[in-house]
Design a protein that fits this description.
Layout (H helix, E strand, L loop, with lengths): L1 H32 L1 H7 E3 L4 E3 L3 H26 L3 H25 L6 H10 L9 H40 L13 H31 L5 H7 L12 E15 L8 H21 L2 E6 L3 E6 L2 H21 L6 E18 L4 E6 L1 H16 L3 E4 H5 L9 E9 L2 E8 L5 H9 L1 H12 L3 H14 L4 H17 L1
Parallel strand pairs: 6-8
Antiparallel strand pairs: 1-2, 3-5, 3-6, 4-5, 6-7, 8-10, 9-10
Length: 482
């Protein structure tokens, strides 16, 4: 469509130029024939000039003015078709020639003879005596006029250069706001304008492709991952890029509370995927990102432990709501483990396939914590490393549930109480000291004391699963040593 517009514009310009050419010739021819009447109307008297215009002289003057206007327009259009160097030459050469002739005449008129020369001297107040130097004054005035005309021609001729300079600066700095650059000037600058607009178009197309690529990439590479690596787009990701930072991992495992083998493979896939679709938006809502989908679970990463804890509570509540909304299907039991520590964010793979991932013992620890969830019947376990990083104004209720032994290290684990109903939560908060005392007694192998403490717990909170597990384990240990 743009090409058609340009072509019609070019055709219009050519037609108008032809019309101007015809008009210029049509007015130039009679002005040439009537020039003698115009010259005859200007009479030198030796003391100046008198003007005796006849009707034919006035007609000749009119034709001369009109023809000069048409010739001037044609000359201007001719200059616009030239390159800058040619345009400056064809515009400055006639001006310089006229200036040279005028200077020679002013300097020589003092010594010329004849009525016309005498009339010119009288008009310009140039005397033949050596003491008079008015010719120098007129030479200075003509020179000044010449310089001003020279400046104006160069200014207007080179004005498009400043626009080209600004356009290239914008292109170089990436500050492109205009859909199209306007340079103006002659043919050469029109070609430059077209080239700049092509570059502008190509840059915008590339930016759009990068933006689209980034949008597509964010489906596989979360924007938070770019943030951790200090990158802004997928094109900046290179194999081997890595950065070490403190982060919080959330390991969520989704297990069916009943046997789901009655479902077909496709039904089972859709069944698990429907729960993953519930979890993923919540992870993003709390400024986290999912690093891996692990079949029936997810490994998520957060910059702040409080975000991970709030996300965990939201996930557990959302899973409960979803379980109640589809009673015809087996319910899902979600168990979550949260841990904080140093994590390496990096790009692994080869040049053909690059993949973002996190590498850390924190991930392995979160996986083992999730197993302890299942072992003692908790829903949400949080490592002490995460609690240590919480801001002072972040409040939530938790209780000590034991330690995870990993090589030579023992990591204290805590269960969040905020997941439970308000009534049960208040009971567990009041009995927190007894529960923690029972856990410590069990760890110290004081099984009779531990059993007694957990028996008290179950008396007040019969459905407290961790207390039930610890009570049975203490009872088994006592029987083994009896």
């Amino acid at each position: 469509m743009h090409e058609n517009v340009n072509l019609s514009h070019t055709t219009t310009m050519r037609t108008s130029t032809k019309i101007l050419l015809v008009l210029a010739v049509a007015t130039l021819v009679p002005s040439v024939f009537l020039t003698k009447f115009l010259i005859a109307a200007i009479v030198p008297t030796g003391k100046g000039f008198t003007f005796n215009f006849t009707p034919l002289a006035w007609v000749g003057l009119a034709f001369m003015i009109v023809s000069n206007i048409f010739v001037g327009i044609l000359f201007f259009r001719f200059l616009k078709t030239q390159r800058l160097s040619n345009m400056l030459f064809f515009s400055l050469a006639p001006l310089t020639l006229f200036y040279a002739v005028a200077m020679v005449y002013i300097v020589s008129v003092k010594d010329m003879s004849g009525t016309t020369a005498q009339s010119v001297r009288a008009t310009l107040n140039i005397a033949k005596t050596e003491a008079s130097h008015n010719e120098l004054l007129w030479a200075g005035i003509v020179t000044l006029v010449y310089l001003v005309a020279l400046f104006v021609i160069i200014l207007f001729g080179c004005r498009p250069l400043s626009k080209v300079e600004k356009a290239t600066e914008k292109l170089g700095d990436g500050r492109i706001k205009n859909d199209k650059f306007k340079v103006g000037g002659g043919k050469q600058f029109q070609e430059i304008e077209n080239s700049l607009n092509k570059i502008n178009y190509n840059i915008k197309e590339k930016e759009n492709k990068i933006r689209q690529t980034n949008l597509e990439a964010q489906k596989f590479i979360p924007k938070q991952f770019f943030k951790f690596l200090g990158k802004s787009s997928i094109e900046e990701l290179e194999l081997g890029n890595q950065v070490k930072k403190t982060a919080t991992t959330l390991f969520c495992d989704l297990k069916s509370t009943k046997n789901s083998r009655s479902l077909s493979l496709e039904e089972n896939f859709n069944y698990i995927n429907s729960y993953l679709k519930t979890v993923a938006p919540l992870v993003r809502k709390y400024d986290g990102f999912i690093d891996k989908y692990l079949g029936d679970g997810v490994l998520s990463v957060f910059g702040k432990p409080q975000d991970a804890i709030e996300c965990a509570h939201a996930i557990l509540r959302a899973i409960d709501v979803k379980n109640k909304s589809q009673k015809e299907l087996p319910a899902i039991d979600a168990r979550i483990a949260i841990n904080t520590g140093e994590v390496i964010f990096g790009i692994v793979g080869d040049q053909e396939h690059k993949s973002p991932t996190i590498i850390s013992d924190v991930v392995n620890l979160a996986s083992k914590m999730e197993e302890i969830n299942l072992y003692i019947g908790t829903k949400l376990l949080i490592a002490k490393t995460s609690l240590n990083e919480l801001p002072q104004n972040f409040e939530f209720d938790y209780r000590y549930t034991g330690e995870l032994s990993l090589d030579k290290f023992k990591i204290p684990l805590f269960e969040s109480l905020n997941y439970y109903s308000k009534t049960k939560k208040e009971k567990l908060k009041k009995l927190r000291n007894k529960f923690e005392a029972g856990v410590r007694a069990y760890n110290e192998k004081k099984y009779d004391e531990a059993k007694a403490l957990f028996e008290v717990m179950l008396h007040y909170v019969p459905d407290d699963q961790p207390s039930f597990v610890y009570f049975n384990r203490a009872d088994e240990k006592l029987k083994e040593t009896a």
